[in-house]
């Protein structure tokens, strides 16, 4: 094989040698490659030859091959002779490539003219076509005949490249005819159109796949033309319901096409309306070319949907048509089959006894609309009702499947037998019965009833009662707003509830054993089909008891059953303060809890979360404050404080009593009685008694309270006194105006002077009243120029001072008087000299008889506090004339 | 003794040979029966296929006559009652099945030529959208297909008997006609064609019993001879 290939290549080379050199010579190339195939098949070997022409400068040993810029290994080279070199490569990959022949730079000419020492082969690749598979063709019905257009499809095996594209030619040949049509496509389906559809003629169809690398034909599909036909579905489907055949429906239809074109067989399917569980009529029953069929053994009074389709009757020929449109019809009614499902709902009566409500479902095979239930109640001790039937019409607007028949109030000592039949338009069903025993003789319930949920269904399991006489069981479930029941046979100990249970609703499921019609006692369990977090959380509040300092009792209400959506597993109490969030979990049967270890005088925010196995829901928040003091704590403090105060008072009193003399001496020193002073009798025209209240009022005494610093300041400013004379005078004027009141404000007394404020700043806290200087002349209302010792008296006058009253002489005298007081001042600061000072004052008062001892005494009682205050007021001797003004009032 | 032994051996040899020959004969008969049955089945299938197509063509011809009458306007019934010459005879000629089948074939060829003429005439008389033209095309194509099937059936039945050429030479078409003549001619062609197909159906049913059964019988006869 290899040898043959080599020979072929050599022949090719010879061909190239004869043809390529002129071309190469034209282009000036010294290398020529061959062959140059239009396309190469991927996966095959390709051998190319590179020849040296028109030069002896290089030899085949100097040549090498590059494939996609990679040098081909020398192992793949075959040296033909000194001027020709073969290379064999494996064609792989779908990408186009170049195979170049180069020459090593063995000489300057090669170095300088590399373009003349290279030649390339373009490698375009592709796959050989593969045989098309799964050829199938179809001819559809068009109006009343088969379309002459035949559409075929196939599977294109193998791969294609962009360079080597495979075209498919569909060829259809009518056997025994000259007709052959074909169509070419790049896809995998095509249609050919014949003059007419060749009914009953043999067709031969095949596909030819072809590309640059070759062609191949598919298997030939040779069939009679009917093999490819797909007709329209049967038309005008009609269903006829015949009253005399309640379990049958007659179906009629028309064939979609004349049987001269295609002989048809049919397929029929039907189902109850709303169901998609189709029942198919066996093919053996749908003979060829039938146009009607009777469905039998179907349910009375049931709406059935029917569809029909057809195909070529020949086995394996043709395609099934689409299904016809739905044809719907209801079967006629028939007598109800079976018994109605009679059951009861027990209730407690307010007036005693048992309330029993009888309820009934249609028979399973009602075979028509149940118009009414006929009921007979038979009390064993009440013979009157025996044999009387009552009718209860069925309200069809009621969506529930059951009908409430009658409420019966039953004495505990009475038993009852109830019989019910269902009636439809055709007739009456068999009789159902239910017996209610006396309460004292109620029959045993099932044992160990358990319930649960598995696979989205609620299951029940129980053990039968010890007695063997159970004939069946009734499983009843009550939840939400509805109830339902189902019956189980006597051997059942495990069942699932077949009704539509709602999620998140608590169902009370009861199992009643039935003993030959006698209803036994119920055993019940509660269950949820699916649980979730409650709809709402419990509402928490404080109990009626007020919160304490460290504890608070919370109460909450249970979540309504309809909003629990699951079994409450526990409650979690959350309470939050600035100190953080705390929680306590309590069992589900708890509705109150006392929080302890709370912080006093703190606001707490609390809420409760109710949990089921599926989640939790928080209730509304509630805030409360703990007390600052615990109950009784305040009382304890008050009592303690009171006791302490009492002790202090008692101790003080004891001290006061024991130290009475000392205290009296310190706080109430012995003051000479002014009443005994001679001045009281001295002024004949001035009733001293009128001033008596003021004399006794200490607060009426004008006080100037100047501390020592003020005193010093005064001393330092003594030199400036003359400069401020007017001011002081003015101040003393105003003081005189308002100074009569015991409670007059010091502000009032200095308000008439701009600088009085300054003075007031220095003295305001201490100046209670300005002093008024009374001269002897004033006392006697006889102005006298003789020098007299200054006396102090309070002026009640609001009369402005006269100019004439400002007598410098008097001022000088007054200044002298005041001077004496200043000299005494240092002694006042010494408490030891206090009594001595008083004595001196008394002596001075007693010696000059014109002194007003009342005023002097008043001042002296506060000498230790006010002595300094007196200093700035001392120069105010100009008040003397004011006394005259006062007199005028 | 030796002679007796030799005789015994020869007898045993003859018995064995006879048994083998009998077995071979039974196998040959069985295989021949199988071939005959398959040939008969093929004959029946081919004939059945031809018969179906004939019925379809007949049905289409009936519909075509209705369409033709509807397309000719008033007095169309009258056109179809006028007798016309130069229209293929609907009757099948010949005595032997091969002759009758060949007659069917040549009749069909003849009708095809007339259909062509009718189509040309009606193209002038009808609107291009007239369903008559379409149906004429279909019927013409169907007659060609039927002719091919008849030919194939003939070839299968009588492989060594070439299909004879038409007795009267090429089909004689009528000379140029006026509109009335054209309408009368067209209806006559269609009516004769319908009748002819009816005859073909009948003939094929007859042939089904004759030809295909004869082949089975002839095969059986061959077996008996063997």
Can you tag this structure with a few keywords?
heterodimer; A: 889 residues; alpha+beta; five-stranded mixed β-sheet; B: 226 residues; mainly alpha; 78% helix; 0% strand; disordered C terminus
Q: Determine the structural class of chain B based on helices, strands and strand pairing.
A: mainly alpha
Please count the helical segments of chain B: 5
Distance linking N and C termini of chain A: 165 Å
Largest interface comes to:
A-B, 16 and 18 residues
What percent of residues of chain B are in strands? under 5%
**Rg of chain B, nearest Å:** 27 Å
**Structural class category of chain A:** alpha+beta
Ends apart, CA distance between termini of chain B: 40 Å
Number of strands of chain B: 0
Tell me, what's the shape of chain A? flat
The biggest beta sheet of chain A reads: 5 strands, mixed
Oligomer kind: heterodimer
| 3D shape of chain B | elongated
Helical residue percent of chain B?
over 70%
Query: pLDDT under 50 segments of chain A (min length 5)?
Result: 10-25, 688-834, 844-889
């Amino acid at each position: 094989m290899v040898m043959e290939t080599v020979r072929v290549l050599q022949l090719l080379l010879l061909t190239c040698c004869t043809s390529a050199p002129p071309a190469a010579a034209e282009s000036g190339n010294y290398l020529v490659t061959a062959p140059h195939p239009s396309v190469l098949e991927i996966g095959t070997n390709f051998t190319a030859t590179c020849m040296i022409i028109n030069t002896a400068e290089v030899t085949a040993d100097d040549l090498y091959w590059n494939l996609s810029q990679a040098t081909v290994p020398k192992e793949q080279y075959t040296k033909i002779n000194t001027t020709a070199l073969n290379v064999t490569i494996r064609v792989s990959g779908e990408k186009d490539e170049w195979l170049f022949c180069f020459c090593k730079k063995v000489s300057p000419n090669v170095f300088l003219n590399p373009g003349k020492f290279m030649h390339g082969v373009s490698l375009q690749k592709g796959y050989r076509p593969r045989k098309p598979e799964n050829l199938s063709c179809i001819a559809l019905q068009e109006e009343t005949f088969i379309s002459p257009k035949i559409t075929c499809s196939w599977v294109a095996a193998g791969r294609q490249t962009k360079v080597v594209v495979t075209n498919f030619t569909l060829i259809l040949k009518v056997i025994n005819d000259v007709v052959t049509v074909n169509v070419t496509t790049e896809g995998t389906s095509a249609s050919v159109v014949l003059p007419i559809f060749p009914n009953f003629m043999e067709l031969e169809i095949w596909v030819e796949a072809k590309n640059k690398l070759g062609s191949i034909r598919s298997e030939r599909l040779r069939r009679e033309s009917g093999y490819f036909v797909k007709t329209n579905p049967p038309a005008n489907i009609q269903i006829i319901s015949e009253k005399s055949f309640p379990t049958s429906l007659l179906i009629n239809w028309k064939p979609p096409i004349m049987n001269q074109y295609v002989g048809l067989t049919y397929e029929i399917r039907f189902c109850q309306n709303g169901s998609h569980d189709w029942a198919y009529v066996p093919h053996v029953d749908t003979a060829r070319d039938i146009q009607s069929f009777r469905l039998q053994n179907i349910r009375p009074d049931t709406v059935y949907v029917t569809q029909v389709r057809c195909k070529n009757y020949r086995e394996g020929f043709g395609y099934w048509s689409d299904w016809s449109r739905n044809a719907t019809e209801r079967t006629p009614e028939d007598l109800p089959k079976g018994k109605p499902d009679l059951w009861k709902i027990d209730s407690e009566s307010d007036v005693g006894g048992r309330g029993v409500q009888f309820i009934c479902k249609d028979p399973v095979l009602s075979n028509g609309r149940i118009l009414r239930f006929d009921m007979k109640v038979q009390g064993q001790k009440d013979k009157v009702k025996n044999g009387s039937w009552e009718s209860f019409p069925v309200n069809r607007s009621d969506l529930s499947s059951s009908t409430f028949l009658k409420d019966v109030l039953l004495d505990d000592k009475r038993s009852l037998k109830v019989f019910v039949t269902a009636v439809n338009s055709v007739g009456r069903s068999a009789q159902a019965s239910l017996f209610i025993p006396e309460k004292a003789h109620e029959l045993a319930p099932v044992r160990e009833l358990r319930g649960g949920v598995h696979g989205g269904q609620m299951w029940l399991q129980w053990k039968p009662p010890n007695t063997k006489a159970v004939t069946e069981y009734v499983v009843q479930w009550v939840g939400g707003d509805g109830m339902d029941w189902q019956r189980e046979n006597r051997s059942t100990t495990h069942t699932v509830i077949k009704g539509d249970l709602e999620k998140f609703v608590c169902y009370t499921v009861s199992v009643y054993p039935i003993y030959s019609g006698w209803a036994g006692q119920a055993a019940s369990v509660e269950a949820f089909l699916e649980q979730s977090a409650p709809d709402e959380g419990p509402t928490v509040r404080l109990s009626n008891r007020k919160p304490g300092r460290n504890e608070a009792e919370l109460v909450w209400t249970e979540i309504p059953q309809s909003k629990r959506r699951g079994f409450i597993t526990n409650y979690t109490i959350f309470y939050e303060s600035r100190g953080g969030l705390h929680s306590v979990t309590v069992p589900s049967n708890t509705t109150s809890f006392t929080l302890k270890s709370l912080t006093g005088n703190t606001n707490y925010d609390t809420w409760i979360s109710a949990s089921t196995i599926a989640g939790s829901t928080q209730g509304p928040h509630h805030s409360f404050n703990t007390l600052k003091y615990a109950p009784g704590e305040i009382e304890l403090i008050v009592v303690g404080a009171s006791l302490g105060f009492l002790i202090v008072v008692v101790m003080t009193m004891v001290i006061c009593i024991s130290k009475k003399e000392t205290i009296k001496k310190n706080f109430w020193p012995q003051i000479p009685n002014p009443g005994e002073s001679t001045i009281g009798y001295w002024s004949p025209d001035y009733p001293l008694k009128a001033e008596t209240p003021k004399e006794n009022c200490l607060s009426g005494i004008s006080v100037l309270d100047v501390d020592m610093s003020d005193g010093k300041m005064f001393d330092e400013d003594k030199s400036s006194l003359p400069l401020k004379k007017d001011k002081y005078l003015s101040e003393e004027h105003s003081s005189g105006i308002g100074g009569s009141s015991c409670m007059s404000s010091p502000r009032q007394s200095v308000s008439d002077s701009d600088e009085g404020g300054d003075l007031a700043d220095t003295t305001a806290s201490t100046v209670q009243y300005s002093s008024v200087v009374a001269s002897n002349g004033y006392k006697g209302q006889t102005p006298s120029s003789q020098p007299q010792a200054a006396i102090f008296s309070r002026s009640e006058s609001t009369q402005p001072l006269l100019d004439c009253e400002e007598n410098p002489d008097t001022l000088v005298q007054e200044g002298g008087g005041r001077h004496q007081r200043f000299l005494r001042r240092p002694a006042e600061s010494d408490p030891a000299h206090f009594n001595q000072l008083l004595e001196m004052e008394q002596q001075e008062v007693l010696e000059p008889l014109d002194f007003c001892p009342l005023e002097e005494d008043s001042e002296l009682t506060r000498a230790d506090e006010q002595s300094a205050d007196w200093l700035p007021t001392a120069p105010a001797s100009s008040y003397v004339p004011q006394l005259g003004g006062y007199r005028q009032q | 003794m030796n002679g007796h032994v030799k005789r015994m051996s020869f007898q045993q040899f003859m018995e064995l040979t006879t048994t083998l020959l009998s077995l071979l004969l039974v196998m040959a008969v069985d295989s021949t029966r199988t071939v005959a049955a398959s040939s008969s089945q093929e004959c029946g299938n081919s004939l059945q296929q031809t018969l179906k197509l004939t019925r379809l063509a007949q049905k289409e011809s009936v519909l075509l006559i209705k369409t033709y009458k509807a397309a000719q306007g008033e007095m169309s019934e009258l056109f179809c009652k006028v007798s016309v010459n130069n229209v293929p005879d609907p009757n099948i000629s010949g005595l032997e099945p091969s002759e009758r089948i060949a007659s069917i074939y040549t009749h069909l060829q003849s009708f095809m030529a007339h259909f062509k003429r009718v189509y040309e005439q009606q193209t002038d008389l009808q609107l291009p959208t007239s369903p008559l033209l379409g149906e004429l095309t279909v019927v013409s194509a169907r007659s060609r297909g039927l002719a091919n099937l008849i030919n194939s059936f003939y070839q299968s039945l009588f492989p060594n008997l070439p299909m004879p050429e038409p007795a009267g030479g090429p089909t004689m078409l009528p000379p140029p006609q006026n509109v009335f003549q054209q309408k009368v001619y067209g209806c006559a062609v269609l009516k004769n064609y319908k009748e002819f197909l009816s005859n073909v159906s009948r003939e094929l049913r007859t042939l089904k019993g004759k030809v295909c059964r004869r082949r089975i019988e002839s095969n059986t006869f061959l077996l008996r001879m063997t």
